[in-house]
Amino acid sequence: MTSRGETAPSLRDLWSRLDRRSATVLLAVTLLGILFRYFGSKPFYFRHLASSYAVGGNPELTAGLYHFGSAFVLFGLIPALIVTLVFREPLADWGVRAGDLSWGWKAFAVATPVMVALSFFASKDPEFLAEYPLNRAAGDGPLAFALHAAAYLFFYAGWEFGFRGFVQFGLRDRLGDGNAILVQVLASSLLHVGKPFGETLGAVLGGVVWGVVAFRTRSLLVPLATHWLLGLSLDYFIVSR
């Protein structure tokens, strides 16, 4: 609102005051999130693509790979192209580097038993059993699970760069570290809506912790490794039953 006697700013004034970098990041992640929910999901694959294409004649396997690949392209590849081609900045400045490994490995060592324990208990929950593994062919044997693990890494690489990298590192100069973390938590948590309630609620806490670790280590490596471990151990406990 404007006080009496003041005039509302024109669109031209608003545009001139706009932080173009932050606006690009926020608009891009919003559009990419919408595309992921509508076109990058397993249901979309089954409705529109399964009848014409399935890897090895296995639509369940293909649906999982399609979902993983969509996340990698939409949250990983496209934001990386924006950083390098539009902002003309190195990806290392956005967390794609080893960072502070001495502190990072300590954080990984502390987080690993927590991730595994959370996955073990979640694997007994009917909500999680109905949702995971995203690739239902992961339990077809050791080789199938190994291939699933490798493909799942691409999913998490895209996810971590999209939110902890592109959004968080992209907004820190304008918003400060704390607010940048909270914005990426908001964006990533909303994409969990529809998942098991415990997972959606955990995405808020996990997003804060992984965001802090990313800034502390100046890298996405530890958030990527621990997030992947969380998802993969959950799948392992489910398919090994």
List the helices and strands and how they pair.
Elements (H helix, E strand, L loop, with lengths): L10 H7 L2 H20 L2 H7 L10 H28 L14 H22 L3 H6 L10 H34 L1 H14 L6 H21 L3 H19 L2
Helix pairs in contact: 2-4, 2-7, 3-4, 4-7, 5-10, 7-8, 7-9, 7-10, 8-9
Rg from Cα: 20 Å
Approximate strand percentage: under 5%
- Count of helical stretches: 10
Would you tell me the overall average pLDDT?
A: 94
Fraction of residues in helix: over 70%
Low-confidence stretches: none
Instruction: Find the count of extended strands (DSSP E, 2+ residues).
Output: 0
Class from helix and strand fractions: mainly alpha
What is the end-to-end distance?
A: 59 Å
Query: What composes the largest sheet?
Result: none
What is the number of independent domains? 1
Q: What is the N-to-C succession of helices and strands?
A: HHHHHHHHHH
3D shape:
globular
In summary, what is this structure?
With 241 residues, the chain is mostly helical. 74% of the residues lie in helices and 0% in strands. It has one domain (19-239).
Keywords:
241 residues, mainly alpha, globular
Describe this structure in words.
By secondary structure, the protein is mostly helical. The longest helix has 34 residues, at 142-175. The chain has ten helices and no strands. It has one domain (19-239).
